[in-house]
Every structure is written in C-alpha cells, then in structure tokens.
Amino acid sequence: MAGWHYDYNANTMMRDPAWNRGRRAGCLAIHPRDAADLNLADGDVARLITRAGEVTVEVQISKLTRPGMVLLPQGFGLDFEGKPVGVNVNILTPAGHRDRIAGTPHHRRVPCRLEKAPS
Predict the structure, then answer these.
(1) Domains, the chain, ranges and CATH?
(2) pLDDT at position 90, please?
(3) Residues paired with 56 in a beta bridge
(4) Residues near 26 by Cβ (< 8 Å), separated by ≥ 6?
(5) Cα dist. 94→8, 71, 89, 105 in Å?
(6) More confident residue, 9 or 33
C-alpha cells in the first residue's frame, strides 16, 4: 500500500533529509510476523518487487500494518543535492492497474513481493 501519511508530512520534509533528522522517513513498514517469516530485522534493506518495477528500501517493523501487507509512504523518491531520498512508489504501480472509468492508479493495492536484499 502506498500512501503512509505521517503526522509530520510536508513537501519540504520529503526533499531535505535534514528536516527528518531523528525520524525514519521513507521506510517500508512490515508486520512483525511477516518480517520474521522473511528473516528481516528492523533496519534491514529489502527488495520490493511489483509487475512494474523494483526498489530497495529500508525495513521498519511495525504493528501499524496487517499481516500480508506492507506500507510505503508516498511523496519520496526525490533527489536532494544529487542524492535520492526515499523511494518513488509511482515506479511500482503498473500503468494498467487503475480504475476503469477515472483512470486513477490503484496505488493503495499493488500486488508485490518482498525479499531480503543481498548484503
């Protein structure tokens, strides 16, 4: 699911990492049971794969998610001073995975696979 909203979201915070000092902005939230099943620890890097693409992202174990679901904040994946900040969830959403009438992408429910990234 894309679109994890923090209580401190603001566009400038997504661009300048200094605004997020002390926070783990841009991490992928995963339920503790799923993390254990995938041998992922808090802070590990994982590969998130969909039909449209794949990214590497830091894992944050959280009970805010349900088993079988991962949660990734939207609005990141920008460059700041030549370095990427977070993950752009738009590259994970297939173009054809959208509402048939409005054409709006279904980035709230994108089937994906998660695996521990090689060290």
Answers:
(1) 1-6+24-95 (2.40.40.20)
(2) 81
(3) 47
(4) 20, 57, 58, 73, 76, 85, 86, 87
(5) 29, 17, 11, 8
(6) 33
**Position 49: which residue type?**
I
Q: Residue 103 has what pLDDT?
A: 81
Q: In what helix (H) or strand (E) does residue 15 lie, and over which residues does it extend?
A: helix 11-15
Question: What separation in angstroms does the CA of 9 have from each of 4, 6, 15, 46?
Answer: 10, 5, 11, 24
**Nearest-angstrom CA–CA distance, 39 and 119:** 13
Tell me how far apart the alpha carbons of residues 28 and 34 are, in angstroms, rounded to a whole number. Answer: 12
How large is the average pLDDT for residues 12-27? 69
Chain position carrying tokens 């679109």:
3
